[in-house]
Specification:
With 317 residues, the protein is an all-beta fold. Helix content is 2%, strand content 28%. It contains one helix and 28 strands. The protein has one helix at 2-7, and strands at 13-15, 27-30, 44-46, 52-55, 66-68, 74-76, 78-81, 88-90, 98-100, 108-110, 115-119, 127-129, 132-133, 146-151, 158-160, 163-164, 172-175, 181-183, 186-187, 204-207, 214-215, 220-221, 229-231, 240-241, 244-247, 276-277, 283-286, 306-309. The strands form three sheets. It has an eleven-stranded mixed beta sheet with strand order 1-3-6-9-12-15-18-21-24-27-26, with no helix packed on it. Strand 26 (276-277) and strand 27 (283-286) form a beta hairpin. Mean pLDDT is 82; it is low at 248-283 and 285-317.
Length: 317
């Protein structure tokens, strides 16, 4: 694989042949020194028809699995595990990259010391689609530190239809980044909406001035050990949380340590009525659903009721 990356040119596709990498018996590539950056642009790594595991357990501290520093790349079907950095790192102004895809094109990122996927510095307009982060299709408990980390000035990225569970901190952490769309993900639960894949901290955490991010529609957030969605710091402002299914159980719903649960029509302390907000001038937009509904999840442990709304939102503090 290393030589294929070194030889690749813009527009190339590297395909992992299923006869060499059988899906039923995945082959492990042990990475002992950092792989070359994806710097060519418009490069496709396609392991969707094979069984390919990249194992970084022999690497020195801080080294990520794949590091993308160019535009227009696609990475699909890989299993990336045990790297001392992030599983996949998108950085250095990299744009228009697609990580994952539908069906077998999704990647599985587990047991990495950093995030499964990290969007760093000014990475923008990238799509994370249909991946398993911290878990697997059969609900293995193989957490990263975070499922997805979005940091600094990363902006205009899309997080769509991923399954994010069992991570050692937050499922998704938006640390200062902005204009992120998070939609259609299962965070802390499987695609059945019942299985407990809870992340050790919040399902989604927004902090350090994260702004103009949109959480929803159609995320399912449950079983996370602290909050479903948590807004931290007064500068975290102008985010929209809308049309999600979020557990109302206090152990995995949206929770404010300072003021308790916030239901439809409630407000954070000291703020005006409709928006969800916190200290100072921070302001979150709280959209009401087209319709609200409740249903009982058969067989669900601890989490019994869901609410399609922006209900149970933590206030910044």
């Amino acid at each position: 694989m290393r030589q294929a990356l070194l030889d690749a040119r813009a527009g190339d596709t590297i395909i992992f042949d299923a006869t060499v990498f059988p899906p039923a018996e995945p082959m492990t590539i042990s990475v002992t020194t950092a792989l070359p950056d994806l710097s060519q642009g418009d490069l496709t790594l396609d392991a969707s028809q094979g069984g390919v595991v990249l194992d970084g357990s022999a690497l020195a501290a801080g080294i990520s699995g794949l590091r993308i520093v160019s535009d227009g790349n696609r990475v699909q079907g890989l299993r990336i595990t045990r790297f001392p950095g992030h599983g996949i790192e998108i950085t250095a102004h990299a744009r228009f990259n697609v990580i994952g895809g539908g069906g077998r094109a999704g990647n599985t990122l587990t047991r990495n010391d950093g995030a499964g996927i990290a969007l760093l510095t000014t990475a923008s307009t990238n799509v994370l689609l249909g991946n398993y982060l911290g878990t697997t299709a059969d609900h293995g408990a193989l957490g990263n530190q975070w499922g997805i980390l979005c940091l600094g000035e990363a902006q205009d990225n899309v997080v769509l239809n991923n399954v994010i569970g069992f991570n050692r901190a937050d499922g998704i952490r938006l640390d200062g980044c902005h204009h992120t769309l998070i939609s259609g993900n299962h965070i802390g639960t499987g695609v059945d909406g019942v299985s407990d894949l809870g992340n050790a901290q919040a399902g989604v955490q927004l902090l350090n001035g994260a702004h103009h991010n949109r959480i929803g529609p159609d995320n399912v957030i449950a079983y996370n050990r602290t909050d479903g969605v948590h807004l931290l710091h007064a500068t975290t402002a102008a985010n929209t949380i809308t049309r999600n299914l979020i557990s109302v159980h206090p152990d995995s719903g949206l929770w404010s340590e300072r003021a308790g649960h916030h239901r439809d029509g409630d407000r954070c302390p000291g703020q005006h009525e409709r928006p969800i907000a916190g200290d100072g001038e921070a302001d979150q937009k709280w959209e009401r659903p087209v319709r609200a509904r409740r249903r009982l999840l058969a067989g669900a442990r601890a989490v019994g009721r869901w609410r399609r709304a922006a209900a149970y939102v933590s206030c910044p503090r």
